[in-house]
Amino acid sequence: MLLATLGLLAALLLAVRAGPLSAATICTAIATAAFCMVVTKTRNQTSGAVQKFRFAAAYLFVLWFYKSVQVTVPALRIPTHDATLLELDNQLFGVTPAIPIQALTSCWLNELMSGCYLSYLAYLHVCVVYSLWMPLEFARRFANWLYSIYAIGLAGYLLFPARGPANAFPELFGPELEGIVLTPLNRIVVQNGASVYDAFPSLHVLITCALLEFDRRNCRRRFYWMILPVVGIFASTIYLRYHYAVDLIAGGLLFVAARLCFGKGSNCELETGNAD
Predict the structure, then answer these.
(1) How many helices (H) and strands (E) does the chain have?
(2) Euclidean distance between CA atoms 94 and 78, whole angstroms
(3) Nearest C-alpha neighbor of 219 from the set 92, 129, 131, 93
(4) Which of 126, 138, 164, 147 lies closest to 66 in space, CA to CA?
(5) Which one, of 109, 108, 119, lies nearest residue 239 by Cα?
(6) Which of 3, 32, 2, 1 is nearest to 15 (CA)?
(7) Each residue of 76-129: pLDDT tens digit?
(8) What does the alpha-carbon distance between residue 85 and residue 89 come to, in Å, rounded to a whole number?
(9) Engineering a disulfide at 186: which of 43, 114, 132, 151 sits with its beta carbon 3.0 to 4.6 angstroms away?
């Protein structure tokens, strides 16, 4: 429901601001309509395979919407808020943390932080595939929990778009970070896969916290394995100059709010999940 609402509102806003016949409006309307049709047609089906197909469709819609933000924000003519986020960092910390951290940069640390940043994608996709492999109730709880939180985070991209410190204020930083394998690989992934206006809130914080909370309740082994890498994921968002500190704070606060609103629904109480 949250994802469908997000798509419908985005399509309506695009129709008003960009015009009903604009490419962004038509694309958003078609993608949202297709997603809603899949959910409606499969919602009451008893087949476990059909239900898991519905959950997979939700994830595909999340991926599409994330990438579409780079077109939606300019079409809506929404101003970016990097200056505001930078000022908030300056007020809270004296300077946005990515600037003083430059003194620590080195080739091996660039590689380590790039690996940590990429591990978010690995963690996410492992969890998604694993949920579809597990019993239906496990997959349902995972989908309801994760994709509801994704809807909240993606809405933030449209309400408060920002490009991140390195893209918005390149003059504040020294040379581009260099590395051997992981650093250039991470740069390629970000340049080709990012949605451009994806700084606020930090989904690396919001979604990682959501995955970690689900694992704490239902997959303890993976939870313990991920505690240390998660620290690296959070640190990498600042080190690699992708986020302001307030982006991370916002991601954390949104996670707390989501947990209070519907966190109980993420507990599967399945022997298979808790045993792991």
Answers:
(1) 12, 0
(2) 28
(3) 131
(4) 147
(5) 109
(6) 32
(7) 999 999 999 999 999 999 999 999 999 999 999 999 999 999 999 999 999 999
(8) 6
(9) 114
